[in-house]
Amino acid sequence: MYATNYHRASSVQDAVKLKSEADEGKYLSGGMTLIATMKQRLAAPSDLVDLRHIPDLKGISVNGKSVRIGAAATHFDVASSVELKAACPAICDLAHHIGDPHVRHMGTIGGSVANNDPAADYPAALLALDAVVVTNAREIKAADFFTGLFETALEEGEMIVAVTFDAPAKAGYAKFRNPASRYAMTGVFVARRDDGDVRVAVTGAGAGGVFRHSGMEAALAASWSPDALSGIAVDPSDLLSDIHANAEYRANLVKVMAKRAVAAA
Amino acid sequence: MGVEGIGASVARKEDKRFLTGKGRYTDDMSVPGMKYAFFVRSPYAHARIKSIDMSAAKDMPGVIGILEGKQLQADAIGNIICGWMIHSKDGSPMKMGAWRPLAHETVRYVGDAVAIVVADSLGEARDAAEAVVVDYEVLPAVTEAVKALEAGQPQLHPEAPNNLIFDWQLGDGVAADTAIAEAAHVTEITLRNNRLAPNPMEPRATLGIYDSAEDHYTCYTTSQNPHVARLVMSAFYNVAPENKLRVIAPDVGGGFGSKIYIYPEEIVCLWASKKTGVPVKWTCDRTEAFLTDAHGRDHVSTVKMAFDKDNRITGLKVDTIANLGAYMSLFSSAVPTYLYATLLSGQYAIPAIHANVRTVYTNTVPVDAYRGAGRPEATYLLERTMETAARELGVSPAELRRKNFVRTFPYQTPVIMNYDAGDYEASLEAAMASADWNGFAARKAEAAGRGKKRGIGMSCYIEACGIAPSAAVGSLGAGVGLWESAEVRVNAVGTIEVMTGSHSHGQGHETTFAQLVADRLGIPIDNVNIVHGDTDKVQMGMGTYGSRSGAVGMSAVVKALDKVEAKAKKIAAHLMEADESDIVIENGELKVAGTDKALPWFQVALAAYTAHNLPAGMEPGLKEGAFYDPSNFTFPAGCYICEVEVDPETGVTEIVQFVAADDFGNIINPMIVEGQVHGGIAQGIGQALLENVQYDPQNGQLITASYMDYAMPRADDLPSFKLSHQNTPCPSNPLGIKGCGEAGAIGSPPALINAITDAIGNNNLTMPATPQKVWAALNAAN
């Protein structure tokens, strides 16, 4: 790791100021990607602005159907929130299967969403739940937020404050872990709203990051059951190929995981 | 002493310090004035070094010195060598290219060391290393052994045209060809044994200390064999004469073979300590370990197995191409030859066997012994072939094996080995009973009802370990003898130190060796300390690899104990005025048989040291040493049965049952043996399902250089293993024990692949059997 300056921000305002004053500053949340990258000397921020101790970023609140998860909520916080489990158990289940206990106690939803790793779990949930990413400056729909591999709509200096969404009528998540990293090699989040609208979001498989699958959405809107997906063909042409899984295999996994997500919902 | 002696599952004495974080590993060592090293390594798989510019780096903060290969050569530090000579079938010696500890002309794999930076802190050393400017002329690279032999491929070493190191054979080619020509059935198969990274929990590290006042060097290092390291660094690398070089391998966190060898870093840190005047410590990080630790396996083989009309094997012909990487590591030549082809008879009576082995240079890190070393490759080849043959012949895999088992001992194979004892049927029976083989059809049907494809597979392995008779290995090209040494030092109060040339890096010697002493003398194991790993404390020894510490290392302790006992009995007889032949040792006492006369052990020891009343002419003291040279290998054997369920939707294999029936002869500590088998099977399952070193074939970059891409087995990948032991004592060593350290890794991969291919109905499947591969093979079969 190259030398860097560490700052602990006390408020959102303080964090923004600290970063704006730095040469090449970076917000630090759980650090599950950033610190590892710095240790490999692949990132060299001049300053780290630690967001984990800002009270406004903490906490999970559920009011009726309306869910708000603070950006600094750890995966453990999300997995173990009783209120959230009652409103949307699928996202708790998703959080419970991120990484290992160490990661779940350090990593945060805000950090994961801001990083937009193509194999991360949360982007699929946010896209399928039609969530809103609340920043210090604005509110961004998930569909507009995730713009590519490790790319988001966040502007320079902009930081995530919270994630909000309305609890779905039904939701489920199924992921196929990469045998080495245990990240999602393919993960599918399915959600059905009270009005019958269905969203199917896929992570870990898309060449451009998280994406929705309209064919499966239509099939599930017509009939909310795993069997409804049996006739769906997933086109491998826009899917990732790497040493662990080629696009054809990922296409198969998208369908299988989607069925399992519906079954789990 | 039944609770602490031979056969007792004594809790490991060493675990308290390991489990409480009190182990002392090389990286824990710290000496005054110590500085930190970082190596500049080649980012290219193959390149010519045009120039190295250190000018900017030298002025960086904290930098004490930066040294390169030209200086190393000027100081007459030698090239790294392979210590086992193999001759090609045309009689020519193997073609060993130069491996310079620091390359200054050509780099041949990604990670090849080019320079060492010594600085006040690791961060500063690394900063300066990044500022060393190496101008490379990048050359084309080749990473696959089969391809490297083809015309027009990049050439690694001028000494080895076509990258061929040797073209060696063993056995009778004419007889094997005749058997195949006259066979009622020939099974043919091509098999790839995947390349593995060893991944010991503790990465390599070394601390080189040069003492200018004494002109003496100390090397702390993560070694399985510190004396061999001292010998080689002295005799071949010219680092220092042996009497001026102390090598200490303190607690070592696993090796699996990868810490046998002497790597560039030990040599360079010792030399750099003298050049810079400071102690120099280097600790490998995990990616550096993937890049620079010697890998294992990487064979491609074609096999022909001939059967007569009664399904008896009449001949076997094997052609193997083995990838040895960019340079020949210490024992690299022995692994695909005498540790491999000599096991190609397996558990079977095969009248004619011929193996041809070509070893090849490629632009990859050197390949050498990794847990099993040659024997997993032989076992995988044979047991996949047997399973395939059984399917082709329409007979049960157990019956085909039974029909061909060696049943009388000793049995001379056509490929050097002389099997001394075994009962292969017993292990097969035990494994099949434990696995409820006969109930498989019902379980398969039940699984099918749940949409799962269930399969069962077996593997009957034999291996040769407890290496090895020195004269025999010498005649086959080994540069060293493979005996072991021990010294038993009885203190004046009767407590005991055992100096052993074996080295424990996880095996539990501090417990098992003490159990042996406790068993012999009837004293508590807490009164026995096992000393190893320091060339200043322990007489010359050969270290630990090839499952040799029990069979060879403990046999040396037995010989030394024989001498200690003989002297103690003489003293006791003298003191009790009895005949020496009437003295027996029981429960910590020396007794006159048939009387109530007895002396406690400590009193005899004390008498030896006070020397007030010893037999006439006897020297004082009670300390004896011994060297033990085995008369044969030991031949552990067994039967492993694996049962799997494949999810046809995803290709995921779940191991639902794994049975291991092993014959290790007599067992010192069953718990430790079980631990060895568990670990070995875990690594075998890793090879079969998960692990695979992959280089980019275009540019030679290591793609699987971290745990993000190299899949290690985790606890939830593994089932609970069902173990049993059969026992045909080894006749060639005094304890009747065979090695148990490698069997699990040797026997398990073919059992697993046989099970998966049975489940999916497609025999065309390579290791690792990843979900994608299994899914594709399943779809291809349907």
Describe the global form of chain A. Answer: globular
CATH C-level category of the largest domain in chain A: Alpha Beta
Counting copies of identical and different chains, the oligomeric state is heterodimer
What sequence of helices (H) and strands (E) makes up the elements of chain A? Answer: EHEHEEEHHHHHHEEHEEEEEEEHH
Q: Which structural class best describes the helix and strand composition of chain A?
A: alpha+beta
In round numbers, the mean pLDDT of chain A is 97
For the record, the count of structural domains of chain A works out to 3
Architecture blueprint of SSEs:
The complex is a heterodimer of chains A (265) and B (782).
Chain A: E1 5-8, H1 12-21, E2 25-28, H2 34-39, E3 47-50, E4 60-63, E5 66-70, H3 75-80, H4 82-87, H5 89-96, H6 101-106, H7 109-115, H8 122-128, E6 132-135, E7 139-141, H9 142-145, E8 146-148, E9 151-152, E10 160-166, E11 170-177, E12 184-192, E13 198-203, E14 211-212, H10 214-222, H11 247-264
Parallel strand pairs in A: 1-3, 2-3
Antiparallel strand pairs in A: 4-5, 5-10, 6-7, 6-10, 8-9, 11-12, 12-13, 13-14
Chain B: H1 15-19, E1 35-41, E2 47-53, H2 55-58, E3 63-68, H3 69-74, E4 106-107, E5 113-119, H4 122-131, E6 133-138, H5 145-148, E7 164-171, H6 173-181, E8 185-193, E9 205-211, E10 216-221, H7 226-235, E11 245-248, H8 264-276, E12 280-283, H9 286-292, E13 299-307, E14 313-325, E15 353-361, H10 375-393, H11 397-404, E16 411-412, E17 418-419, H12 424-434, H13 440-449, E18 453-462, H14 470-475, E19 484-490, E20 496-500, H15 509-521, E21 528-531, H16 549-575, E22 583-586, E23 589-592, E24 598-600, H17 601-610, E25 623-628, E26 637-647, E27 652-663, H18 670-690, E28 721-726, H19 743-760, H20 771-781
Parallel strand pairs in B: 1-12, 10-11, 14-15, 20-21, 27-28
Antiparallel strand pairs in B: 1-5, 2-4, 2-6, 3-5, 7-15, 8-13, 9-10, 9-12, 13-14, 16-17, 18-26, 19-20, 19-25, 22-23, 23-24, 26-27
